[in-house]
Amino acid sequence: MGKFTEDDLKKELETKEYEYGFYTDIESDTFPVGLSEDVVRAISKKKEEPEWMTQWRLEAFRSWEEMTEPEWANVHYQKPDFQAISYYSAPNNKPKYDSIDDVDPELLDTFIEISPRPQHRETTSRLVEPEEKNFSGFVFKIHANLDPRHRDRTKPSNNSSR
Predict the structure, then answer these.
(1) Are 86 and 30 in contact, with CB atoms under 8 Å apart?
(2) How far apart are CA 103 and CA 86, in angstroms?
(3) Bridge-partner residues for 29, per DSSP?
(4) Cα–Cα distance between 105 and 108 in angstroms, integer?
(5) What is the DSSP letter of 124?
(6) In a domain, 36, yes or no
(7) Which residue range(s) make up the domain with 134?
(8) d(Cα 60, Cα 54) in Å, to the nearest integer?
């Protein structure tokens, strides 16, 4: 059998059906491919971010633009085309629900499928199992979707190196 090449992989991926099951057909607002200062501003506007955060993202983008990808010894791959990627996609209608019962069941099923399962936790006195009636989990939010009322918690301080 011959060597499996990058072209072989590309052909396989183009014809292969997605096997991991994490696809949910939900109407989305997706930006065209490409990354520019306008795209950074548009993402920040979509997220209703404060001006300081938009400026922080623009500074990071400008720094990234000046970077060059290193050439690694004995590592050969096709360099990514960062202008061939869409950098924003979100469900079109993001209604505020009064109850979890109002959420699209397909969306909930997808979250359940891809979410890590609860794990037991060691305490100073015993092991707490997730099946216990009094077990309480934790709430997490992705940094990019922080509650706008608390974005000030992510603002870099003047003495920060970010």
Answers:
(1) yes
(2) 26
(3) 90
(4) 5
(5) S
(6) yes
(7) 7-154
(8) 10
Q: What residues contact 89, with CB distance under 8 A and at least 6 apart?
A: 28, 29, 30, 31
Per-residue model confidence (pLDDT) at position 15? 77
CA angle 106, 108, 114 (to 5 degrees): 105
Query: CB pairs under 8 A, 24+ apart, for 59-66?
Result: 61/35, 61/37, 62/37
Instruction: State whether residue 122 is helix, strand or coil.
Output: strand
Any domain includes 160? no
Tens digits of residue pLDDT in 81-137: 999 999 998 888 766 778 888 888 887 788 777 777 777 778 888 888 877 776 555
Q: Is residue 118 part of a domain?
A: yes
Collapse the DSSP code of 29 into the 3-class scheme (helix H, G, I; strand E, B; otherwise coil) and give the result: strand
pLDDT of residue 161: 47
Instruction: Please report whether residue 1 resides in a domain.
Output: no
Q: Could you tell me whether strands 127-128 and 89-91 are parallel, antiparallel, or unpaired per DSSP bridges? A: unpaired
User: What is the number of structural domains in the chain?
Assistant: 1
- For residue 72, is pLDDT > 80? yes
The pTM score is: 0.52
Q: Per-residue pLDDT tens for 8-32?
A: 877 877 777 766 666 667 788 899 9
